[in-house]
């Protein structure tokens, strides 16, 4: 319900009270007492003191409005309460136009009672003494009793201390961001190898044609009795590369060919056919460790105590080709001189990532969420590759946080807009 709807339609209750006249200095006694009573009221909702409205028992009302002289700076009210009530009461003061009349609204937010006088206040014959406390009961104001205080503490113990106090922010490549650009799809190792093999193949095929032309010259010499000098000059003009065996176009070495430049045309054609498979690990490393975004989630605990033994579950619907690494891809190592690559320990701290039929499922545990600091969800951030076709879309991460001392899971949604 909006504030205007409360002004026009609500009746007086334990959390709504109407006042005909403004809270001016001569009735600050009533202001302190009324706000304290509302703050101590046994309700979870925000509470409202509406000023400039005369309310009747039958729920009719007259919008009296406030004059310019009635409009005090809200800093006056904040200082008055801060100086005289403990603990501080969270509230705000505003003015709302209802028709052509201006109405004052004091909104008291969800509180932590009991509230009481921290020092004396005296206005004429009216006095509020240290320790005095008042509570809203129905539509009236009464002094706080011992039973009221017992109930206040019982409600505080029953309430969830973390309700509304756990927030999540997105960290992209080490910065708090809500947007990210797409990732580059060029310059993958397999593509670079494909281009290199294609270029070498073209050169070798051209040279093979030169070889075949030379063989044809030899045959022509045998049949037509050409001079050796003439055929020698023709062969020199062909300019064959050193080490090329004219009969097989291969390099002879003690360990066989290794570089692409040293391989035969047949070997290169086979290499070209399997280049994606050959460079799979190199491509994965480039994709997820060099090109992908590194995403983490900052969990803010704005309560006054630790959240213990936490588990975080995140889901992301498949879409637009977005790809998340299921592990940290290590830089591929070339085999040793003996053809053996020693095993390396797996990097630790990456969350569990499972690719399901329609979504990614990401899970990790957090020992505790300290209050007042930024808690990163993962030791190692997620590697998220965003292709160009995802431009203009939003990635919706659905987060569910559970913990030993959370009364109910904290559910949140974090959006990442792709530029």
UniProtKB/TrEMBL annotation:
Domain of life of the organism encoding this protein: Bacteria
Assigned keywords, A-Z: ATP-binding, Coiled coil, Nucleotide-binding
Molecular function, one GO term: ATP binding
Residues in coiled coil: 194-225
Schlafen AlbA-2 domain residues: 12-143
UniProt protein name: ATP-binding protein
């Amino acid at each position: 319900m909006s504030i205007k709807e409360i002004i026009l339609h609500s009746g007086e209750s334990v959390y709504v009270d109407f006042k005909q006249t403004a809270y001016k200095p001569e009735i600050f006694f009533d202001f302190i007492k009324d706000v304290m009573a509302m703050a101590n009221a046994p309700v979870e909702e925000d509470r409202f003191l509406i000023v400039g409205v005369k309310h009747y028992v039958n729920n009719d009302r007259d919008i009296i409005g406030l004059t310019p002289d009635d409009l005090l700076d809200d800093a006056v009210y904040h200082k008055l309460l801060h100086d005289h009530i403990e603990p501080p009461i969270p509230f705000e003061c505003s003015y709302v136009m209802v028709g052509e009349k201006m109405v004052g609204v004091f909104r008291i937010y969800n509180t932590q009672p009991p509230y009481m006088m921290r020092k004396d206040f005296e206005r004429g014959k009216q006095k509020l003494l240290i320790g005095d406390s008042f509570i809203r009961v129905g539509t009236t104001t009464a002094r706080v009793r011992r039973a009221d205080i017992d109930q206040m503490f019982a409600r505080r113990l029953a309430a969830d201390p973390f309700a509304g106090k756990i927030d999540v922010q997105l960290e992209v490549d080490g910065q708090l961001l809500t947007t990210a650009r797409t990732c580059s799809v060029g310059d993958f190792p397999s593509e670079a190898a494909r281009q290199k093999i294609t270029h070498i193949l073209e050169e070798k095929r051209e040279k093979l044609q030169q070889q075949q032309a030379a063989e044809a010259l030899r045959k022509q010499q045998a049949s037509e009795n050409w001079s050796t000098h003439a055929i020698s000059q023709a062969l020199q003009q062909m300019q064959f590369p050193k080490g090329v065996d004219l009969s097989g176009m291969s390099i002879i070495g003690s360990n066989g060919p290794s570089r692409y430049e040293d391989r035969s045309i047949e070997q290169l054609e086979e290499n070209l056919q399997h280049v994606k498979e050959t460079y799979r690990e190199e491509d994965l490393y480039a994709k997820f460790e060099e090109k992908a975004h590194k995403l983490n989630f900052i969990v803010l605990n704005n309560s006054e105590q630790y959240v213990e033994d936490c588990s975080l579950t995140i889901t992301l619907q498949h879409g637009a080709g977005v790809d998340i690494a299921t592990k940290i891809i290590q830089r591929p190592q070339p085999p040793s001189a003996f053809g053996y690559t020693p095993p390396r320990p797996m990097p630790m701290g990456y969350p569990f990532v499972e690719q399901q039929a329609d979504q990614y499922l990401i899970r990790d545990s957090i020992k505790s969420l300290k209050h007042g600091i930024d808690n990163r969800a993962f030791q190692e951030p997620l590697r998220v590759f965003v292709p160009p076709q995802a431009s203009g879309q939003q990635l919706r991460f659905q987060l569910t946080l559970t913990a030993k001392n959370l009364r109910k899971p904290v559910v949140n949604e974090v959006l990442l807009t792709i530029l």
